[in-house]
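Hey, can you fold this?
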Amino acid sequence: MKILVLGGTKFLGQHVVQAALDRGHDVTLFNRGQSDPDRFPDATLLIGDRTCDLDKLAGDRWDVAIDTSGHTPLDVSATVDALSGKVGHYTYVSTASVLSQPVPFGADETAPVEELPPCETCVVEVTDHNYAAVKSECERIVRETFDGPSFIVRPGLVVGPEDVSDRFTYWMRRIKFGGDVLVSRPDQPVQFIDVRDIADWIVRAGEESFEGTCLATGPAEPLTLGEFLGECKRILDVAAYFTCVDDAFLLEFGLQPLQDLPLWIPREQEAFMTLDCTAARDKGLRCRPLVDTIQDTYEWDMGRPWDVPVNAGLTLDQEAELLTTWMDRMDRVPA
């Protein structure tokens, strides 16, 4: 098949391209050529900015388009218009974050989503405040205006090799360092999916012309934060000791969920980590064993220079200060 990937230069996009090549497809990338343009010598690279260079796509046709870089309604609308009649199937990579807050436990694709006010549907600037509603509007545009079958993928937290967000690698680095490790509630549910699993599935979505919308995260069986951290410790084979603190303590010191202490989310929001992905599994989404994701991600991370800035998690000094404060409070609790 001929596959057009819009983007393909960052984490998930790179793995989508590699999966398509591995499956023997003829792949064309359309992006600005600013990030590692020589990474895929077996693919065709069309250099252009989707905000103003869509005419560069006029001279060809593709069986499948995979959109990993559609960030604003204006861009997605223009791209859908440009590709209608030139592409047989359109897959748009959205996010599970489109679900309206508060997310119900076990939410599936029927759960309500955030929506932009009518006066903002042409928004060009994406912020933390409007991100969910913007992506929801992009979904609507693909679903309602593309002239062929379309498929909307809503990933949860995507992890694995080449994940520079450090929301997953933080724990492996920290546990490998050993000693007393500050962690949140061990009973908290956690969900994430290996980038290689979802990338391969996205390519198969085009091959099989999936339609509709699917939440996509893992693992296949329920997992708690304590179980995940325990598996990291077992695999890395280190002497690390977990000190569990409560949500109120973390919020008191201004820690941002999922960022300052990766994978942590306050109890009142933890339903976001209980998404029902039955629809995706019915379409063949499979998750590799947790041990493989941990081991492969750790090995990739160990190949990075240690002076590379870390994008998530506490510094050792920050953690030590929090641990000292917590233990001091525990010592002063009346018997």
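Oh, and this one too while you're at it.
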Amino acid sequence: MKIRASNIDIEVEDSGVGLDARGQPRPVVLLIMGLGMQLIAWPPEMVQGLVDAGFRVVRFDNRDAGLSQGFDHLGTPGLLWTGLKYRLGWRIRPPYSLQDMAADALGVLDALQIGKAHIVGVSMGGMIAQRLALTAPARVLSLASIMSSSGARGLPAARPEVTRVLLSRPANKSMQAAIDHSVRLFKAIGSPGFAISEVDLRERVTAAHRRSYRPRGIARQMVAIVADSARAAALARVAAPTLVVHGKADPLVPFACGEDTARRIPGARLEGVQGMGHDLPPGVAARLLALLIPHLNANNA
């Protein structure tokens, strides 16, 4: 369904209010997806696992992704030029910021009249979740930052082969070429310890591309990530109980980034997952549920 939040149109999926065993409204888990990814990227078994554990689950498409409002009128930034400015320490002016995207997430809660929620984000979604926890601490029951980063300078970068695929383009402008390119990227960042067949991977990618394909939105989101370098120092102010989960085999956002995030957030608990890369195959989804549900249950008050 479409809602109006933060003065833009955002596509939302809501599992529904429902009541817990005590007749009280179920606690809410707000799921925030990563770079260029859509709400359908959350594995169904993970969403259902949270619902079965007694939670109301809210997912949404970030701005410039999926079925939410696009920002093509802001132009397409040059990624190589942005990277050069970052390396030189020059100021980067993104079309919009991760702070703006955190305001979108908060707007989703407002539109659904949700006072407090557990905030769970993966990759860029983890960065947005961190921003939300800093912006509206009274609205956050707990924070979970998964396969994400503090954005601090000096952290290890993605493996060169991953960066090459990430910055490359499809062979041509056809949908099939775009699908092939995405499959190649997911293979490069995938979890070596939690294999997914190419058939299943291709089915997921094809479904996502048929729903929405927004490469220019991905470029704008990437610049928003690179420009958010001040977040690292601010993480010391995060008051929410925090779980940081990171794959020890992540080739895109190395494990050291998760370690750094946990170190910067007071009282944060770090869980490293052997064999986990930068994706959400069924085995990883099951491992995340096993870590998330106790964390959420411990912080429902």
